[in-house]
What we know:
Elements: E1 2-4, H1 5-8, H2 20-33, E2 36-41, E3 48-60, E4 68-73, E5 80-84, E6 94-105, E7 112-114, E8 118-120, E9 123-125, E10 127-129, H3 165-168, E11 175-179, H4 190-201, E12 214-218, E13 224-227, E14 235-242, H5 251-259, H6 267-279, E15 283-287, E16 295-300, E17 306-308, E18 314-316, E19 323-327, E20 330-334, E21 338-339, E22 352-358, H7 361-370, H8 376-383, H9 390-405, E23 408-411, E24 414-418, E25 424-429, H10 430-437, H11 443-452, E26 456-460, E27 463-468, H12 478-489, H13 510-524, E28 528-529, E29 535-536, H14 538-542, E30 565-566, H15 571-583, E31 589-599, E32 608-618, E33 620-621, E34 633-634, H16 637-651, E35 656-660, E36 667-677, E37 680-688, H17 690-695, E38 701-707, H18 708-713, E39 730-739, H19 744-754, E40 759-768, E41 777-786, H20 795-813, E42 816-817
Parallel strand pairs: 12-23, 13-16, 28-31
Antiparallel strand pairs: 1-11, 2-11, 3-4, 3-6, 4-5, 6-7, 6-10, 8-9, 14-22, 14-23, 14-24, 15-22, 16-19, 17-18, 19-20, 20-21, 25-27, 26-27, 29-30, 31-32, 32-38, 33-34, 35-36, 36-37, 37-38, 39-41, 39-42, 40-41
Amino acid sequence: MKTSLAWLNEYLDEPLALDEVAVNQLAEQVARTSVEIDSYTTIARQQDGLVVAKVLSVNPHPDSDHMVITQIDAGESEPIQIVTGAPNVAAGQFVILAKVGAHIINHGSGELVTLSAVSLRGQMSYGMLVALQEIGFDNKIAPKDFEAGIYVFGPDDGVKPGDDAIAALGMNEPVLDTDLTPNRSDMLSMIGTAYEFGAMRQVKVQEPDFELIEYETPADSQISIQIDDPSLAPKYALRVVNQVTVKDSPLWLQKKLWNAGMRPINNIVDITNYMMLMYGQPLHAFDLDKLSHKDIHVRLANDNESLVTLDGQNRALRSGKDIVIASGQDGLMLAGVMGGTSSEVDANTKNIVIEGAIFNPSLIRATARRHNLHSEASARFERGVNWDNTFTALDHAASLADDLADGQVARGRIEAANQQREAVHLSLTAKRVNQILGTSLDVAAIAGYFDQLAFTYQINGDQILVDVPARRPDISIEADLIEEVARLFGYDNLPLTLPYGPTTPGKLSLLQRQIRGTRRILESLGLNQAISYVLTTPNKAQLFAENSADSVVTLDYPMSSDRTTARQNLLAGLLDDVVYNAAHAVHDIALYEQGRVFIAKQEDQQPAEIEHVAGVLTGSRLESTWQKGKQAKAVDFYDMKGVVESYLQQIGVSDVSYQATSRHLNMHPGQTADVYAGTEYLGFVGQIHPRLTKAQKLSPVFGFELNIFAVLKNVHSSVSYRPISRFPQMSRDIALLVDSQVSSAEIEDTIHKTAGHHLVDVTLFDEYTGNNLPENKKSLAYTLTYQDNDETLVEAEVNADFESVISGLQSQFNVTIR
């Protein structure tokens, strides 16, 4: 909230100093004690040379059909000639003059520029008459559009030629922009902020006083109220003001509004906004003569009901959910959020109805979110308003309508609901405060902080009984009171102590090291880490899961329809990542993700959380890199299997086997294998089913998903590293004619068992099936590499080991050596 310190001073017994040094110190104190300060500045910033001037005469420009020549009284001995194209300039007006040498903010670029005398179509202009937008006002707070012309002071604004326009407009008033937390709704009002600043500076607060004069015409003869359900509006009342004159607000009120970041509209609307800023209580004014029925009806929206709000949007209301203020059956406003155009106050309005209420905060928040319509009013109703000030703000607004709009306040306030606030009485002891804060405060010192906060209390021995005022809805338990003591005592003043008890060196557990090792291994294999949402749709949650569909974990109150269910697999999220990358012209993709999946248990139990790792490959690859080149080749099942195999080998899992399977409904039935360590199931690897990838116009995608807990349970040896041998390798090639049902894995397993201890690598470099081979036969060719870490191998040793391999293969598979 933007807090004008000049306005705040109206409520403090000892005003705040407004010089730059004092404001800096205040901002620091607020940030340390209360809430964060987003910024503090003035509208004027570095501008100068702006004065109030009176237009003495306006004459046509001889060489222009849209510019005029004016003579201006700026409080100097001689009039100043100004050439302007302002459409609204007229003799007798009090306007803003930027004199020659003035520094003003350029309306287009926002930069600071220096004015000089210029010739416009042959006529000299010694300055510039300006609109508020040309001196730093944002369009959102300027009372008139830029196209309407220059700013004109009102007849009762009390300005004279030569006055400093920056001071007259309140542009030099420092404004603190506080970044409020949701619980500090009290600081959404100037009075609530005054109490906060007063507590920090030990200054008393004086709330505003006003006089309400009622006329003879009774209010209840002009309007009545009906509330369907008391829970919709526990407090609701109306004031009627007759014979108002709608016009611009006086300058003092406009200054308060634009320094608070709000745009002045007219005196009636400005009064309601002024009360909202002062008391934190949103009000709304209706044009009484525009109501179709003289009955205000507070109800929930009907079926197929719509309402055009003040922003010009036709909004379809949600039946039974949105609170509507209606006249008869005609909707007037979306309660607590925004008014409607049908009863809008305009220049022709003569009789008004002012509404003051407290609406159900849960329903207001739901309505604001549903319609994406977050207003100043809804922000306050959602967080909680001062229960005791609702009708005070309403009466004060009626009094101002009398003063500023020449209205006549009808006799009587029409109250339809006035539930009493449930009083909050809390107690605490000095012992408890000191135990929590580590201080040594006595009862009198603690009570002094409640005096600063203007809380009423009673002292009973060591106990303090505190009555929490309605302006502080954030205080409801003992801990809240202790927090108030800590804030005012000063967090920097709390005693510092070292932790006590036995200490242990911090380090990662074995499980944590292994999980981090998983990420390092997969990244070393060329995969990039992806992070997907844990929450997804029920369909994606089950897409690659292996449990039954009735065991999903769903949220009772999801944020959106596509984030309702906790994931049970990682592959679905990675597939979404592939789709996203492919849509952005990235086709060679290698990703992995490591994270938790959630499996539901019985209704009264928390879901099981299991650590998984998954990966995907698609596109092209080179023999030893993921980069695309002349030798690019599409990835296949063996590339994905190689990633899994390398990972399991490096993490320390032995006795790994792969069994072809077709049981995974969303994986290719002919290119998918289950992964086992011994007899324990670890996960699966294969091609994602073409019906999924083709639907997204993707190339073939290969993936795996493993249960990390199962993988790590089968890590039976720590990974050790040996130095690279300094001695040369020797290799032998062998081509085998074998039965077609014999797998390469079986051949390689036999080679390793029979090759002796010098074999370091076996590589399948050729597979052939087709012509010139016997039926049901295939040819497999391997390179066997031999090396010794301690000495140079000799031919005799290698030949002996190679012959042993040949004998083993012939004995096991009846192979023919080609």
